[in-house]
Write a structure and sequence with these properties.
Helix content is 5%, strand content 72%. It is mainly beta and 522 residues long.
Amino acid sequence: MEIVKKKIRMSRQRSQAMNQITLEEDLNVPDSKADVTGIIQHRAKVRVEESKIMENQILVSGNLEVWMLCLAEGEQHPVYRLQAKLPFSEKLNLEGAKPGDNVSLKWKTEDIRISLINSRKISIQALVTFEASVEELYDTQAAVEVKEMPDVSVRKKKIEPLSMAVQKKDIFRIKEEISLSSNKPNIGEILWDSVQLRSWDVRPGDGVLDIRGELFVFVLYAADDENGSRQWIESALPFQGEIDCTGCRPEMVPDIEVTLAERTLEVRPDYDGEERILQLDAVLELDIRIYEEDTVQILEDVYAPSKELTPVFGEESYESLLIRNYAKSRISDRIRISENSPRLLQICHCRGEVKVDEIAKTEQGIKMEGAIEISVLYITADDEHPFALVTGMIPFSHLMEAEGITSECRFHLHPQIEQLSASMSGEEVEIKGTLSLNLFAVRIMHQNCILDIEEKELDLKKLQERPGIVCYVVQPEDTLWDIAKKYYTTSEHIRNMNHLTEEIRAGQKLLIVKSAVLHTAS
């Protein structure tokens, strides 16, 4: 007798850890720069230079890079950009980790505070969170067929497991150029820039992943003219391409996260040698998990009229797709400019970042609450303070329908800003936008599976004590399978003997002849 088993490849989190670190730095303004009277805007990025996996630990080192748009004293060069690097080296205790493990490491800047100590020194304080987890692939299995036993009878049960087909990390490079329109002066110096990833989508194909989306670029620059006038441009750069992905097929189920990992903006000369082209180089990082849905008939029970078969059961866990859902949520609000802020003349740029406060499972689905952190850079009516920033938080709450979700379900929810715009409305800034949500949720199923079958000869003495022919009255809870197994025959034999064309019903009388008796007598 040979037992055929089906393997289901799965991924699980073996251990996880989280740590927060506080970084502080006092930045001296370079001698070549004018005195600072204020910080208009800032942005920060965690750059991990090295992550080293050790026994029960992971060492993370790198820098927090901070850029600041500074308001300078004097009218000749009213704004300029400064950059600071805050180094860090941190150990995370990760139980069970060892060199060679597949470790997922994520980080984010929770809070950053920048203030002036004096006109030549700037205080920077930041709170950075690191999350690490060890992930491993493993196989769960169940018996699906019995071979080399002609008279075996099997009862099967259908399950729909979700098997891990591809798990990897990859990158996608983007290289684009932005040419200044004819009414814009040449670029002298980039004062500030912003690059946002929007509307990304990744779909599996035959051996590839199709990726598309948009990079929204803003650049504030000092013009190469007599007055060094401040100019700005905005441009939406769509991108599309393919990433090699062996084992991937269009019908598979993706769970992919895309982040903008690196980007640089440089000024390039055009064909006439004038500084009128901006070259963007960007790197997207993809955390790829692709699953294959399957329908498997596993053995639920087994017997044979000629042998005593005893199934050996064991509980196995597997995942089954609950839902993969896309949704959009519109946002709209007004942000009031405070009375002590400079008067708004014109909006330059609007930027938003999704901040998730809570994700909770409910009876109706998954509810996400949070806010979009908005910052709007604008031109003022004050020549000594030409730029200012207004910020605000726009709260949102959205329920993603996921019928049947329980506490044991596992899910990933990826929010992203798809569209965002700002317009003047008196002393307020009106914000409108669209938030897109991508939900991937699976059920954790527990199933008693046949792992092995013990085989031994029938007890002939016990069988001979049983009647060879029985007139059986069907009970309400009976199935044809149970009756056949009890009397060492087969369902087909009972059907043929009683000329059955429909399912049996309670009270029905059946004539049963033991196949085991016939088998041993022959």
